[in-house]
Design a protein that fits this description.
The protein has 15 helices and no strands. The protein has 320 residues and is mostly helical. The protein folds into two domains: 59 residues; 255 residues, Orthogonal Bundle (MetI-like fold).
Length: 320
């Protein structure tokens, strides 16, 4: 080996040793933080990644008595059944309709609520308002479903009794497909708007207060402050939440549609989660349930990656 090559080799070795020593020094000073990561890593490995091996059920003629690995392989038979089932396409359509409606009309509402809550200067009123708006999030959907039937019933509901007394009409909120979608959306917003606003409220509290003071000195009104100072400063949070919501467009909660649906509105109330429950669980077609779940995961993954890419190109903001 020549002297120049030997020198280069020694220099590279010194860099490697220096890098290793810096890494060891860093870990020796911060090992407590990495130790704190161990429990969540174990949790995700055991309860999230390990169950993914069960996805093979989608490619098997699953028999619960034989188990996952002893059940015979069925190839793509399950997916052929899924994609030939008209109820599956109806469930996809209903899921997308409800999620798109919630995205277009429901997504801006927590943002506006956070902006208006931030403008409340009286501490007591602000805390009471926040508590009232947060409470619905902690109510079970089973209870909310019972409340909805008591409030929106055609014969005994409070709303229809009031409409009948004032206008002489009754509205089939829970038995007409169109009105059911409207009722579902209203209840969904009422249940989640307060809790969703917490994220935006947290982002607002991190804004430098000197900006507001300077705007006040310049004569800025509250509406100008909200829409030209507060809103632009929480843009990053809004973009991240938008990406996450778009990434779940093919998924919808199970409890809410199940607690509100009935036989009269199945054409619009049967979503993917209730389809999986009805076909996969009640009819014991576990391969079908697994196949639909895999389909949802793939679609959601594509939506998250696609939305994040578009957001990075248009606004320069994204999750990664």
């Amino acid at each position: 080996m020549s002297d120049s090559a030997d020198k280069r080799y020694n220099a590279s070795q010194r860099k490697v040793y220096s890098r290793r020593s810096k890494t060891l020094l860093y870990f020796s000073g911060h090992w407590q933080f990495y130790l704190m990561l161990v429990p969540p890593i174990i949790y995700y490995a055991v309860f999230h990644y390990k169950p993914m091996t069960g996805l093979v059920i989608a490619f098997k003629d699953y028999n619960m008595f034989k188990g996952t690995w002893a059940s015979p392989w069925s190839g793509l038979t399950t997916f052929r059944y899924i994609f030939k089932n008209p109820d599956f396409y109806r469930a996809i359509k209903n899921t997308l309709v409800l999620n798109v409606l919630n995205l277009i009309l429901g997504f801006p509402m927590p943002i506006l609520l956070a902006l208006f809550l931030n403008e409340l200067k009286t501490g007591v009123i602000k805390k009471i308002t926040q508590t009232i708006l947060y409470l619905p999030h902690f109510i079970s959907w089973v209870i909310i479903g019972g409340m909805a039937y008591q409030i929106f019933s055609m014969t005994t509901g409070i709303v229809n009794n009031a409409l009948n007394a004032v206008f002489g009409i009754t509205v089939p909120f829970l038995t007409n497909p169109g009105w059911w979608v409207f009722t579902y959306f209203i209840i969904s917003v009422w249940h989640s708007i307060g809790w969703s606003a917490i994220i935006y409220m947290s982002a607002i509290t991190s804004i430098d207060q000197e900006i507001y003071e300077a705007a006040k000195v310049d004569g800025s009104t509250r509406f100008h402050t909200m829409f030209f100072i507060t809103l632009p400063n929480i843009k990053n949070t809004i973009v991240i939440m938008l990406i996450l919501q778009v990434g779940t467009m093919a998924t919808i909660g199970f409890e809410q549609p199940l607690s509100l649906q009935n036989s009269a509105v199945m054409s619009t109330a049967d979503v993917i989660s209730t389809f999986v429950y009805r076909v996969g669980t009640q009819n014991a077609k576990y391969s079908v349930a697994t196949g639909v779940g895999m389909f949802q995961s793939i679609i959601n993954f594509i939506l998250v990656v696609g939305t994040n890419t578009i957001s990075n190109r248009l606004t320069g903001q994204g999750i990664w």
